[in-house]
Amino acid sequence: MEEIAPLSARSAMLSLLLGSHPDRMSAAELVRAGEHFGIPPTTVRVALTRAVAAGDLERDADDPRQYVLGERLAARQRRQDEAVLDAETAWEGTWEMAVVVVTGRTGAERAALRERLTSYRLAELREGVWTRPANLRRPQEYADETVLMTFAATPGEDPARLAAGLWDLAAWAGEGRRLLRRLERTTAPAPRLAVAAHLVRHLAADPLLPAALLPTDWPAAAMRTAYAAYQDELRELALSASL
Fold first, then answer.
1. Rounded to an integer, what is the distance from CA 64 to the centroid of its chain?
2. pTM, full prediction
């Protein structure tokens, strides 16, 4: 089985804050947590300085000794939570559809729009036409894009075939099962953190389709359960570091 590289000190600190959901942690607490993962205190402090410079972390306005997630990572944490929690609601067969109606945008603008639509778990059916089953509780906040028209639609073809064409479900499931096995077998703190980080990133790419459209033995539920248990481990570590 392919090895998973250990996380850098900076990635380890960010993963700790992303996964354990502390409101904030001080430098001293993060240093003590770093020791659990075999990261020297000096390396942790350098990593924190660089994370602040990059905007990944911020100093708390009320207590500069405390670090909180920057805006981009706070948004990523919300997407992770959506992937870990059960985000599905009753599905009546309709699909969300977003159509790009403005041309002449820069490459950066097009890339930003694609990233935003992908983050809402839409897939591109044709150039400029994005869709997914309307089975998620999350609001369609992407609809505020001035370059989009949004619709509710019902596909004329078999929805399971349509979903299989939009997402590579077999490949996603195979990688998910591999990561789940690896997390179950990995006990050393630093490698376990690296595997868990890969697992939750993979969960963030789960299309969160209705059960009727998924292959049999879809591993997402088992992955969510395993990662939720690992979050409990991280919370215990964060709490012990604060003592």
1. 27
2. 0.86
